[in-house]
Amino acid sequence: MSHAQDKRRALTPEALSMMDTIARTGSFAAAAREIGRVPSALTYSVRQLEDALDVLLFDRSSRQAVLTAAGQELLVEGRRLLQELDAVANRVRRIATGWESELTLVIDDAIARRALFDLMEAFYAERIDGGGPPPTRLKLRVEVLAGTWEALLHGQADLAIGVPAQQLPSSSIHCEAAGELEFAFCVAPHHPLADLPEPLSAGQIAEHRIVAVADSARLLAPMTVGVLPGQDVLTVPTLATKVEALLRGLGCGSVPAPMVRRHVDAGRLVRKATYEGRRAGKMNYAWRDTGHAPGKALAWWLDRLRSETTRKALLEQHEGLLL
User: Fold this and answer.
1) Of the N and C termini of the chain, which has fewer Cβ atoms inside 10 Å?
2) What is the pTM of this model?
3) Among 268, 243, 265, which residue's Cα sits nearest to residue 254?
4) How far is CA 269 from CA 28, 50, 80, 191, 254, in A?
């Protein structure tokens, strides 16, 4: 048997999954407990993999499971291969039944959770042949700005809701308009900008810290919105944490108007007009065009998204649920 065939035999899904588990848990002992094997057996399997590939995958000088550069590369590529294997299995099941075994939804953080959960509730309430709910498992991801596109482009999601309309990353992506999302520039009542006459100038805003949500893209170029040159920035992970920072007077910033309407009405935040005038962004929903008819689960969601009422709710119904 050739050395190339030895390498192929070593790179099994089980071996790649083992690498992922060791890296995720941080130690051979923890990984062995999760997999249900003794640590010595796991160590032996890693050494067999290293021998077959003729590389060191873990740094032996460390007490923890520290990957070498080669090990890190195998981990990244192995995860990608496992995702592709899952995609093949999902496609086979979809062809057989018409329903996907799993459907991953990725939403931008600006999408209203209440409306989204209403849709998921309706999906699970569907009754198909035999009277049971759809067999498709739903998986939800929440991303920010370019991170939403990235999840769709790299096959980590089947349907993206709330992607910026100005980005058209690939001819294999089909986009439809979701609607317009208005943004409100807000500060706490005790913030220095609260009592200044409107509209606020760029110079006035630049003198104060802005609260920005970090773009969650890992591979695509991240987007930065609303930060002025030289301005102090407090970066937070979600819009909910941005609203909390604004309420505490830690900075200023723009957020989707429906998300803070109740705070503005109650006087907890002050909405200020700025030099930019009215700010609104056009939002899309998008899915990958494979050249084949969508599976039944994706078709169900696309059918619901054709409703203007549903699309409007996804942009505006923030009351009662902020995740």
Assistant:
1) N
2) 0.70
3) 243
4) 50, 58, 44, 10, 12
pLDDT average, residue stretch 195-213: 95
Q: Can you say how many angstroms the Cα of residue 6 is from the centroid of all Cα atoms in its chain? A: 37
Q: Is the pLDDT of residue 58 over 90?
A: no
Residue 135 reports pLDDT greater than 60: yes
- Look at residue 88 in the predicted model and tell me its pLDDT: 77
- Which structural domains are found in the chain, ordered by start? 3-85 (1.10.10.10), 102-323 (3.40.190.290)
CA-wise closest residue to 304 among 174, 148, 178, 158: 178
DSSP 235-269: EESSHHHHHHHHHTTS-BEEEEHHHHHHHHHTTSS
- Helix, strand or coil, per DSSP, at residue 155: coil
CB 128 within 8 A of CB 107: no
**What is the amino acid identity at position 71?**
G
Q: For residues 132 and 182, what is the distance between their CA atoms, to the nearest angstrom?
A: 40
Task: Give all strands (DSSP E) within the chain, no chain letters.
Answer: 102-108, 137-143, 159-164, 173-187, 210-213, 233-236, 253-256, 270-271, 279-288
Spatial CA neighbour of 179 closest among 282, 286, 318: 282
C-alpha 13/C-alpha 27 separation (Å) is 20
Residues 6+ apart with CB under 8 A from 314: 111, 112, 115, 116, 119, 161, 162, 178, 179
pLDDT at 164: 79
Please provide the average confidence, as pLDDT, over all residues in the chain.
88
Q: Which residues of 100-121 are buried (b: 16+ CB within 10 A; e: fewer)?
A: bbbbbbbbbbbbbbbbbebbee
- The amino acid present at 18, given as its one-letter code, is M
